[in-house]
Amino acid sequence: MPKNRDAARANLENLYRIFTVPEAPDSTLGAIDKAITDDVTGFLQNHIVAIERNLEEIEAMFSSAAIPEEPTYVSEYTEFVKENLVAHSVHTAAPGFVGHMTSALPYFMLPLSRLMTALNQNLVKVETSKAFTPMERQVLAMLHHLVYRRDDGFYRQWIHNSQHALGAFCSGGTIANVTALWVARNRLFAPDGAFRGIAQEGLAAALKHRGADGIAVLVSERGHYSFGKAADLLGLGRDNLIKVKTDANNRVDLKLLRDECQRLQDRNILPLALIGIAGTTETGNIDPLEKLADFAQELGCHFHVDAAWGGPTLFSDRYRPLLSGIERADSITIDAHKQLYVPMGAGMVVFRDPTALSAIEHHANYILRHGSKDLGSHTLEGSRPGKAMLVHAGFSIIGRKGYELLIDMGIERARTFADMIRHHPDFELTSDPELNILTYRYCPLAVQQSLAEATVEQVVEINALLDQVCQLLQKYQREAGKTFVSRTRLRIDHYDGELTVLRVVLANPLTTEEILQSVLEEQCEIVQQPEIQSLLRQIEELCVGQGCDGTTAQQQRKCCSAGRT
Amino acid sequence: MPKNRDAARANLENLYRIFTVPEAPDSTLGAIDKAITDDVTGFLQNHIVAIERNLEEIEAMFSSAAIPEEPTYVSEYTEFVKENLVAHSVHTAAPGFVGHMTSALPYFMLPLSRLMTALNQNLVKVETSKAFTPMERQVLAMLHHLVYRRDDGFYRQWIHNSQHALGAFCSGGTIANVTALWVARNRLFAPDGAFRGIAQEGLAAALKHRGADGIAVLVSERGHYSFGKAADLLGLGRDNLIKVKTDANNRVDLKLLRDECQRLQDRNILPLALIGIAGTTETGNIDPLEKLADFAQELGCHFHVDAAWGGPTLFSDRYRPLLSGIERADSITIDAHKQLYVPMGAGMVVFRDPTALSAIEHHANYILRHGSKDLGSHTLEGSRPGKAMLVHAGFSIIGRKGYELLIDMGIERARTFADMIRHHPDFELTSDPELNILTYRYCPLAVQQSLAEATVEQVVEINALLDQVCQLLQKYQREAGKTFVSRTRLRIDHYDGELTVLRVVLANPLTTEEILQSVLEEQCEIVQQPEIQSLLRQIEELCVGQGCDGTTAQQQRKCCSAGRT
């Protein structure tokens, strides 16, 4: 069957072709390459957040579970991707996308990312990374220096030390936080006499060795959800992640923290780590790090700072003092894909003690041999891409001063937006921005006044309805796709309960005051929708009811006119 | 100071500029973009493995721990990257780079990766990914289907189910393996009456609840080193990762496995999981999966298959039967950055039971809310890039048949290379390729014969010297940078001990027979170096010594002439 043989040969040639690099830009692959680049450019120049289309319709395009039998032309697939994937992505770089921590990227990240992908280095070992290993070690040292500011001699000794690593480059902040607590756990139960350490003998034997009934991690209730995963994964149990209540400014309440530690001691549970947050995910607040450092020292436990979001504030001469005490942390998480403006998938953890990562050191026969400079012997992950290169590029091209400008501008923008909200008759600021994150809700001034005078039961009822308003408002705005804010649930002290609030993260340097104004304007339009109007009418009735219990008719009118058409 | 104000404004404008997309290809950024692309093309068309330069010299270029104060021009930085990073990377795509699992990429992966980076989606939640979430769910379903082949109704029910996920897309196989064992652990200690489950109460309480003294994972001594990390991380302790010896074909010895389980039972340790390997990292062998499935069923424990390497063998009609029994696994790891030819940083784990991942389910207030389709509620990692798109592209463009061809060619190439080694007078094959991985060592035929007749002590002495030869050989070859093989330590039954061997992975479709021939030729040249010649002379003397104890003079000459100049 020579025909079949010809077909097989043609298949094989096609296969070789896709693995080779196009010599000329006018080759088919070269042309497709250019078309994709142009399409990306088009996408990025488009400043809407998303095209209005519901998820179920999109799912229909991605619903076959069978891997296609036959190959497809790259050009055909590219068309599919443009129509079905790109068109229905979220424009995380749009200046009106202010709801999450994913922002615009500096454009230079794109060609450099492509370079990184093409080199396809694997940072687990020098044999598949060569220069990328020293480069990543330098990035970790730079981050270490940003936080701990040790002298040149220190870095000369440790930066390229084959026995150690100053930190670990991770796929994200979650792995960074897990790594920090893993190190803390293994150091708490280090080898000791006949006990060969928790890494070898396990948690049950470790507790027995210390005569303890458990270990606990303490963090404020604003702590990132990754700590819950870490507590589960590391065998502590979520019960032993103690979530301490915060003060009115979303910072851990030190008095309550002390009480919790006492309770742990009474139950024979060892404190494994105190966690300070430098930029809470939901409100951007910073825990009192100096005082936490003092207390961790008193307890003799690990002090970890989750600065995944707020870490780059250290670049700012003006705002660096907000993080005072961070240099006393045993470990720090910073996400590069957040305020270092690196593409998704880049987190880092650094340790004050350059030998700390020895607690999780591991080796293998074919790589990570003793004495090698392979970074993989000190990471939770195995094979990893050369993403550190993009952090290196950011540090070099933007520079300390460039990052400072970005941080300062973000904080100022948040203050400006907070002022807009404060002065707007229909919105209530629910958390003041300390960094560049704030929360607020739709709550007309008159309702706010009414709430101030209402009974506890009335407050609960009105807030429950306002929660529904907020939830729908956020949903409709997201679906319309012009601008985007996120939402969360937050305990607000003066209402003595949890509220649904809108959350805004202001890290995109292209977000202008006009755009922020338009976010509020759009929300005022959205509340005119019948479903929300019906909720507002119910609130009005409750306010009137409350008015009957003592407020004047004038107060009643004032209370209920706002926010209604 | 108007001058300073002007400077500040200029800084700000520059900052905005780097965040905006160049409108025209002849803009500065457009030109740099093109220059980087051209440089990548040049790099990829270059078929050497690495430039000869020692690591210490490279480290000098990456030794400052201070983040630069001032910004740098993108063009300037690009030059730095080209000269210091790109030039000293490892050409993992070179057809002569046959030592590790990183191979060439299909060219279409580059523009698509760039697209993925530019979109900067975050797969943790729908709000930052939209179409990417259904797309990733489809990829997981496709992989599930590849292994488990459930019917259409099954996938209709589960693929886009908001309560569940068929698997987890990870940064790599390590996180995939950890996720599998985490799920297994949490299912073994599921909530039960007053016991609220290990996720909540922790490992110590869980053991107490079951009246057990520990939990163990069993895998062959060829198991990937990530299982050691998992045992440490999950609180089992490395002692409870039981590494069972293999047979002469590097497959787990079932008799010894049974003995180990008995020993665990005697010590009141529960078997948490049996692990089967489908493509061992060092030798590419496949455990007897059917028999392991039977045994796991008998024990009532989780059966995980680490198919990080060998999983894509399922694409091949011819070789799929080698993995028979894999469809009975509770969970399976497959790395996309290995034999799916996706860039670094893409692993996956799928579960037979579509509800299995509920064991590690978690929620937060601002994302991952109950009922949302956010994939992040079932992953160990948090924020993740849209890498699943590249798996989707591979499945679509290469197709099942294309991958089949790649798999079949790789296995045949390994057999060809094994034959070359078998017929070469200076090399000894130390593991026969079952898939596309093999090991061998430099050991002239006469030395092989001599070893066959030697006493145990002589064998040990000669092998120790051959180990040194192998180690130097691999080192010099890597440093020369023309071709590359890796090395490992392997227990070889008929020598009753561990040997240093060279390891070859044949996944690059551009690796020809001529290139494989040149790998051996280069090694024959390298052994001429004085340091290695000195070792070979010592081996000769030992052989002569042995000859004195009974072999003829002729045998002596034959024994010691090979491999000497």
TrEMBL record, chains A, B:
Protein name, per record: Pyridoxal-dependent aspartate 1-decarboxylase
InterPro entries referenced in this protein's UniProt entry, alphabetically: Asp_decarboxylase_pyridox (IPR022517), PyrdxlP-dep_de-COase (IPR002129), PyrdxlP-dep_Trfase (IPR015424), PyrdxlP-dep_Trfase_major (IPR015421), PyrdxlP-dep_Trfase_small (IPR015422)
GO molecular function terms attached to this record: carboxy-lyase activity; pyridoxal phosphate binding
Family, similarity comment: Belongs to the group II decarboxylase family.
UniProt key word Zinc: no
SUPFAM superfamilies xref list: PLP-dependent transferases
GO CC, any one term: cytoplasm
Keyword vocabulary terms for this entry: Decarboxylase, Lyase, Pyridoxal phosphate
Residue positions where N6-(pyridoxal phosphate)lysine is found in the record: K338
Protein origin, superkingdom: Bacteria
Pfam families: Pyridoxal_deC (PF00282)
GO biological process: carboxylic acid metabolic process
Cofactor (UniProt): pyridoxal 5'-phosphate
Organism of provenance: Geoanaerobacter pelophilus
